[in-house]
Design brief:
transmembrane helix, transmembrane, repeat, Leucine-rich repeat, LRR (right-handed beta-alpha superhelix), nine-stranded mixed β-sheet, alpha/beta
């Protein structure tokens, strides 16, 4: 093949390579220009991962400037107060492509009905560090794609128990992770057992002392559910033995090796999984309980025997009581006779005459 022909092909390949490089640079430049134009003021944007991050800005103030390509929206300290359907839809701005929404420390107090219906692709929602006092039963209608829900330290203390019910969780048919740390919970909420697809629950940093038998029974029917417990103020006494046996025989406690006793003081800071059954001192407590029961039985038997003796000797007792009564009557008659003799005026005069 002639040299000129080879040289021509070499130039063609070089030109093609340069063209591709030029187009790549042009595309990236256009993306940068697009991001810089559409990114809200004072926010951080990354179009490659679809991220818009804004700190301590009003959601309504930036909603019109949020780009359509956003998939991950992070709003920290946005002071939203109430979540409504129109919260995420204003003047034609839609967030229909949003898959992850973080509203952390945003002073949210209530979630109204259908609050997330404008976010049909939402899979991750973080409402941690808020002050929730009300959640509508149909608040999550339209958010059936939600897979991760984080509610760490998200409730006002008095409202925790009434809010953690299964009414508003019914639409969450794909939820597989739930976080409830720092909410002063004293037990595992029942809503956990109503979420069929749930795989992981984090209930660390609460006020749980132990699991009761009913909770352990429910957990035994949800073998695929894993729990994170640490830290919690576990009381390692006799009443915790059922939970201790469950921890040893089940793989559902994902951080079992890090669980520690808070009380009694003799076991404070001790790893629960290093304990033995005798460390819970159930033997002495059982003996003490048995001794009280035995003492009560003995007293009851003595009472029954006493009543039987009284019943069997009722005639003799009646005779004895009659004899006492007759003796008392005779004694009283003797006293009465002497009193009459002493008070007779004739005896008094006769005594004076002498």
């Amino acid at each position: 093949m002639p040299r000129g022909h080879l040289h021509f092909h070499g130039n063609t390949n070089a030109l093609l390579a340069r063209s591709r490089l030029l187009w790549d640079l042009l595309f990236k430049l256009l993306m940068l220009i697009n991001v810089s134009v559409s990114c809200p003021s004072k926010c951080l944007c990354d179009a490659d991962i679809g991220l818009v991050q804004c700190d301590f800005l009003s959601l309504q103030g930036i909603l019109e400037d949020i780009p359509q390509w956003v998939r991950n929206l992070s709003l920290v300290g946005s002071d939203v107060n109430v979540l409504r359907p129109e919260t995420f839809h204003r003047d034609g701005t839609r967030l229909s492509n949003l898959t992850a929404l973080l509203l952390i420390n945003s002073s949210i107090q209530a979630i109204e009905a259908l609050a997330f219906k404008e976010l049909p692709r939402l899979t991750t929602l973080d409402l941690s560090f808020n002050r929730l006092t009300a959640i509508a039963d149909d608040a999550f209608d339209g958010a059936s794609q939600l897979e991760v829900l984080k509610l760490n330290q998200a409730f006002q203390t008095p409202a925790v128990k009434p809010l953690l019910n299964s009414h508003w969780t019914k639409p969450l048919r794909n939820l597989n992770r739930l976080e409830l740390t720092g909410n002063a919970l004293q037990s595992l909420p029942n809503l956990v057992f109503h979420l069929e697809t749930l795989e992981t629950v984090n209930i660390g940093n609460n006020a749980i002392k132990r699991f009761d038998e009913e909770t352990i029974l429910h957990l035994s029917f949800k073998k695929k559910l894993g729990l994170y417990f640490s830290p919690n103020p576990f009381v390692c006494d006799c009443r915790m033995t059922k939970m201790f046996l469950w921890l040893r025989n089940s793989s559902q406690a994902l951080d079992a090796q890090s669980l520690k006793c808070y009380a009694p003081s003799s076991l404070n800071g001790t790893d629960i999984m290093t304990l033995k059954l005798e460390d819970f001192k159930c033997i002495n407590e059982d003996l003490e309980t048995a001794s009280y029961v035995f003492f009560g039985i003995v007293l009851a038997l003595i009472g029954v025997i006493f009543l039987m003796v009284l019943y069997l000797n009722r005639k003799g007792i009646k005779r004895w009581l009659n004899n006492i009564r007759e003796a008392c009557r005779d004694q009283m008659e003797g006293y009465h006779y002497r009193y009459e003799q002493d008070s007779d005026p004739r005896r008094s005069n006769a005594s004076t005459g002498i």
